[in-house]
Design goal:
Mean pLDDT: 91
Order of helices and strands: HHHHHHHHH
Shape: elongated
Oligomer: single chain
Distance between the termini: 45 Å
Helix content: over 70%
Number of strands: 0
Strand content: under 5%
Number of domains: 2
Structural class: mainly alpha
């Protein structure tokens, strides 16, 4: 993550530097992007760049975290649903918002393709808890195992969706497929 000095830069300068880095990482990948080219294209000095970040890996992690945060903001807050239909409507609406965001912001999409996204989001935790509250999840053999498997299903669906060409990606179909997989996983014995 950036060194504390980075936060003292004016917001516009921070955003411009991260946007330049995002464009390079999106185009060239984490390993292929050149820190020197990022620095040159951003118009800051090399010494300043190392004053703000420990290196290219640190810069990539910062840019990727920013893309993850923007995707999370696009999903919005989860609101408790009145019933199963309401839960799935909200799930699909969030999926469609995220799909539209990623179609409109290909650099963020490319960064998310390169990011493992290991930690469950607060959105997922609220979604899963709501599904359990509504009785949609059979907790056997173990609720935590079902939660972990549910997160893995959504991560796999996300990876699959991100690998699709933008022009062929259908967020409605992707959401329906993810719903079908989750419903199979959650089905009681």
């Amino acid at each position: 993550m950036p060194l504390p000095r980075f936060e003292r830069l004016p917001a516009a300068a921070r955003a411009a530097f991260l946007d330049t880095a995002r464009a390079h990482f999106a185009r060239d990948g984490r390993d292929g992007a050149s820190l020197n080219r990022i620095i040159d294209d951003s118009g800051i000095s090399k010494s300043s760049a190392y004053h703000y970040f420990d290196g290219k890996g640190d810069l990539f992690e910062t840019v990727a975290a920013d893309s993850l945060q923007r995707a999370a903001q696009t999903l919005g807050e989860w609101s408790p649903a009145a019933d199963a239909d309401g839960l799935w409507r909200q799930f699909h609406a969030a999926n469609e918002r995220l799909g539209a965001f990623l179609a409109a912001h290909p650099d963020h999409r490319a960064l998310l393709e390169q990011t493992p996204g290991d930690a469950p989001s607060s959105w997922f935790a609220a979604f899963f808890a709501d599904a359990a509250r509504l009785g949609l999840i059979d907790g056997t053999p173990d609720r935590r195992l079902i939660e972990t498997a549910s997160l893995a299903v959504l991560r796999a669906a996300d990876r699959w969706a991100l690998a699709q060409p933008v022009e062929r990606f259908d967020p409605v179909a992707a959401g329906a497929a993810a719903q079908a997989l989750l419903q199979r996983l959650w089905r009681s014995a």
